[in-house]
Amino acid sequence: MKYLSTFVALLVLPCAVLGQKLKPGFDKAEYIELLKVSAQFGDSTYVSSFPAPQQFRLAYRSPVMGLDNRWDLWADNQSVAVISIRGTTANSVSWLSNFYAAMVPAKGEIQISDSEKFSYQLADDPKAAIHVGWLVGTAFLVKDMLPKIDSCYRAGIKNMLIMGHSQGGAIAYLLTAHLKSLQKQSRLPADIQFKTYCSAGPKPGNLYFAYEYEAATQNGWGYNVVNSADWVPEVPFSIQTINDVNTTNPFKGAPALIKKQKLPQRIVLKYIYNSLSKPALKAQRNYQKYLGRLASKTVKKNLSGYVAPSYYNSNDYVRTGTTIVLKADNEYFKKYPDSEEKIFTHHFHPPYLYLAEKLP
């Protein structure tokens, strides 16, 4: 009730109707403030060691839902709100969301409980595919978000920043695509301006999802901020097969072309072609087996009524969005040296803040 009361109070602030607009383009100060907002999900020790937000105040914190997902709503007195998405926690269920890494089509429907189905259209291209574990998290979070977005809009708040760090960054991609889709369907007001910062985010989907996401945000409305020393933006692992390229390509006709060759050449070329193509196809099937079908059994144990969807036969994850690189230099490594024991030393908020403050 404390957060809900604060939320209501913020909505009626007289300054909220002034209508300050978000500006396109990467804004160093804006990103740093959002890092401070995002860090507030940590425990008391983590939060107390990190600078507090200066511009925004917490208006609402959601209950834990889905696969240990949670989000915050923050607001300032100039009609800007922040949707902040929590990253991975120490809870094994939160990690399950990451490891449930098979792909599903970026358009479809997924049953998340006994009585609820989530319909989504995160891309128009039927070749676009996304990470199923983070889609499940998005499905639960957006149910709780939409009423709050509506309340903000009714109070005159039409400028919304979306921020996620780590797993929160991955979900921020999918959430942004979903909210923009709702706007196209006239299910969300078209004059709400969203601007997204995916910080330390892993790869959310394949190239065709990336194309559509980047086209929708390429005029300065979406950024992917990565520390060059951080391993998290490098996962999930990518496996590109001959089935992952555009329809018009030279590989599709290769088997027919090989058949036209004389017998000795045909035998050699077929052997080479199979040696190059089959290992990747087998690896993709194995990833889908272990990170899809088998992982879904554990998901079902944690989400009553969850029904695993049909998977998309790909594991071609790519880095997505306009990227802002926080380049780790010699001075950085003196402060944050590589470590085999502390595997998240380059991933938490402090190293990102350190490098962001060095940006011009």
Automatic annotation (TrEMBL):
Record-linked SUPFAM superfamilies: alpha/beta-Hydrolases (SSF53474)
Cited InterPro entries: AB_hydrolase_fold, Fungal_lipase-type, Sec_MonoDiacylglyc_Lipase
Pfam families in the record: Lipase_3
Residue ranges occupied by any Fungal lipase-type domain in the UniProt entry: 82-237
One example of a Gene Ontology biological process annotation: lipid metabolic process
Protein's UniProt name: Lipase class 3
Source organism per UniProt: Spirosoma radiotolerans
